[in-house]
Description:
Blueprint: H1 7-25, H2 50-67, H3 69-76, E1 80-85, E2 88-93, H4 96-105, H5 107-117, E3 123-128, H6 132-141, H7 153-163, H8 183-194, E4 203-207, H9 213-227, E5 233-237, H10 238-250, H11 254-262, E6 266-270, H12 279-294, E7 298-303, H13 315-321, E8 325-329, H14 334-348, H15 354-363, H16 368-385, H17 391-397, H18 399-407, H19 411-421, H20 436-452, H21 457-463, H22 469-485, H23 487-501
Parallel strand pairs: 2-3, 4-7, 4-8, 5-6, 6-7
Antiparallel strand pairs: 1-2
Helix pairs in contact: 2-3, 2-5, 8-9, 10-11, 14-15, 14-16, 19-20, 19-23, 20-22, 21-22, 22-23
Bound molecules: adenosine-5'-diphosphate (ADP) and magnesium ion.
Magnesium ion binds near residues 213, 270 and 271.
Amino acid sequence: MHKTKSKKDLNRKSNFKKWRETMSENTGKQSAQLSKNTPSLEDTPLEPNADIQRLWKSVHAEMRQEFGEAIFRSWLKPLTLRAFYHGTMEVSVPTRFMRDWIQTHYAKRISTMCIEKNNEIKRVQIVVVQNAILDGNILSQDSGSKTDSVKNESELKKSIEEISSPLDARFTFDSFVVGKPNALAHAAARRVVESASVPFNPLFLYGGVGLGKTHLMHSIAHSIQENSPEKIVMYLSAEKFMYQFVKALRANDTMVFKEQFRSVDVLMIDDIQFIAGKESTQEEFFHTFNALVDQNKQIIVSADRAPSDLNGIDERLRSRLAWGLVADIHPSTYELRLGILQSKRDLLGADVPNSVLEFLALKVTSNIRELEGALNRIVAHADVSKQKITLESTQEVLQDLLRAHDRRITIDEIQRKVADHYNLRFSDMHSARRSRNVARPRQVAMYLSKLLTARSLPEIGRKFGGRDHTTVMHAIRKVEELINDDAQIAQDIEIVRRALTG
Ligand code: ADP
Ligand code: MG
């Protein structure tokens, strides 16, 4: 805000602070009384006169009109008139992030509004009055509670550890199998751990249930705690965040809550979608978030969907969540599932033949959690029954699970869904047409039929206009290849698969 840091400037700053305090004590009064500390006029910003104050009020109203209630409440309401000097109108916001956001999106228009109304105004400057949230609103909200706040560092650290959820010792980078679907998320997580500074804020991880979001977050937490034990890492679910917040509200203890959450070095909130529709929790999270970003502290958030799809979450929070790095975890591929199973088998030290792992990787596609569950079941069963694990015993032990997977879907349904997706007719699935725009979707449908039903290759062939089982086999191989090389196909297939299994 001030370009040079001469003594005079520093002096001016502190005088100005005192002056501001006087101002804020007098809020509401038309002309604030200047205290003894009021700096001399040529030296300091001028208190805005009644005209300017009135003008600002009407600009406030106009912004609300023009930008709408939601944006106004989120961004523009906190703008506070601070000073007017040499044609510069100075308005303040509590955080750097807010300033940047307003600067990029609304500042130009706001300037115009002001300048249009009074030609003495040459420019509008937005400045950050840091800790305005902490020193101003919040303190006045919980006035007097400063004495109740946490007393010392170690006590604070202890209280933060209590809020934090326990970490699963098994969820480490070492046990995380990396494949195409999770490569980006994994690389981003490693960057957070390996960077000396904050590489992106926040890191937003998203993906369907059981695809490894929590595993990655715990890995980050373990790793930071190992490399930098002095850092305070807080990991908790959004649900627990809300619970803590509500508890603090009830106990009239929000100051301690705020202090705890603003004191961490790394904040991780899992499953943020949970606070959809929970307005005050979102608001609190938003302030915590901004305070931490302003202090350059790392934030990591996970969700089951992309920021833009988080319905029921305030627009300003959604846009903020998307501001760092957004990394999605795609549904697993056959290769990744097989890799995870192999690694899990090694961890368990169990004697499971590859053919069984391949069978599981092909059949249990919903999510990794279910896949692991299936492996655990057959290993446990073999243990108890003292039998070797075979493909047959696996099919028997997992009968219910496999049937549940199979029963849901018929080849007809698959053909319909694929035809819909590619804008083809249902009959194209059985026809003899060989042009690529028909043949490729047909191959996709064959692949999905093998994946999602218990039908044999000849049975599938018959359902596709009486084709030979080798044609089906070829189609499956081709599609598997394409999934690896062609992101578009992989995505198409995933969309159809989800529509079918969803
Ligand atoms: P999410 O939080 O996305 O719902 P989790 O992180 O809880 O999913 O993962 C579900 C299970 O799958 C966990 O046991 C986890 O260890 C395992 N898992 C997921 N992805 C991987 C992976 N890439 N490598 C090893 N295990 C994984
Ligand atoms: Mg999770």
